[in-house]
Write a structure and sequence with these properties.
Rossmann fold, binds adenosine-5'-diphosphate, about 260 residues, binds magnesium ion
Length: about 260
């Protein structure tokens, strides 16, 4: 039976490319023959919007068949899966009510482990090669749930001074989560929204590559307007404009993630 690898894309800095990277890596892993389940863990619904129209996403978010209701009522998430238009690629949609999930979980027994329990039967079935989770830009009890349900943390970082500054919080949170879930590993850092003409990019890479015990992926993602056009069309960039630069970069990144997560 397959082992399902679960990866959480998290960084408390907003706009660092979490949702974009989670969706596009998921798309390419699926294209590369892996069976992938995406979990939209953010009330901003961005991961869901990467694959479905605004109308469809709002309908899912406002109904009952979404992550919020499943986690609040501690249901088996296998009953909340929807198929995306792409082969091998499924999604658990989010809800705008996710903003209140911490409140709902507060009084529950083992409240950090509720998502892990909701995902247990999907993981045990071995149906998916990967479960990729998109985290919100906050480091609280819900992010803790996402990370406690993951084998790996992947941190997308924007190549900017403040992008690097925020990393310290992320590392501290990672250490805290490991006290509850010691098996969680740091898969690595992916640098996003790179402008190679800026010297700052070189400095960012030097700082990251100089860090001990932290892997920085060889593949990085440059600024590319195709990403925004693809998001406007509710499509992953590889489906929207197959030959564009960021599509090739995400394809390479997906291969690198696959190799590293299964090493
Ligand atoms: N490589 C890129 N080139 C251009 N725009 C990008 C790129 N990656 C992300 N973006 C844009 O940056 C914004 C933030 O990205 P997003 O993935 O939503 O970050 P996060 O989920 O960390 O908040 C979005 O508007 C997205 O369209
Ligand atoms: Mg996001």
């Amino acid at each position: 039976m397959k082992k399902t690898v679960t990866i959480c894309f998290a960084n408390n800095k907003g706009g660092s490319g979490k949702s974009t990277t989670c969706g596009n890596v998921g798309y390419y892993l699926a294209q590369q023959g892996k069976k992938v389940l995406l979990l939209d863990g953010d009330m901003q619904l961005n991961l869901s919007l990467s694959f479905f129209s605004e109308e469809d996403v709002l309908a899912m978010a406002q109904g009952q068949a979404n992550l919020y209701h499943a986690v609040r009522d501690q249901k088996d998430l296998k009953d909340y899966i929807v198929h995306t238009p792409y082969e091998n690629l499924d999604l658990i949609p989010s809800s705008t009510l996710m903003s209140g999930i911490e409140y709902e979980l507060f009084t529950k027994w083992q409240r950090e482990l509720i998502l892990r329990k909701c995902l247990a039967s999907i993981k045990a079935s071995g149906e998916y090669d990967y479960i990729l989770m998109d985290a919100p830009p906050t480091l609280g009890g819900w992010a803790m749930n996402l990370l406690c349900a993951s084998d790996w943390l992947l941190i997308p970082v924007e190549a900017s001074p403040w992008g690097l500054f925020g990393l310290a919080n992320m590392f501290e949170f990672f250490s805290t989560v490991r006290q509850i879930s010691p098996e969680l590993g740091l898969l690595g850092i992916v640098v996003t929204k790179v402008n190679e003409r800026k010297n700052y990019f070189r400095q960012t890479m030097d700082v990251l590559r100089g860090m001990e015990n932290v892997y920085t992926f060889e593949s990085y993602i440059k600024v590319d307007a195709s990403i925004e056009w693809a998001q406007d069309a509710s499509q992953p960039v590889g489906a929207f404009r197959k030959g564009c630069r960021s599509a090739a970069e995400y394809e390479a990144l997906a291969k690198e993630i696959d190799a590293r997560a299964n090493a």
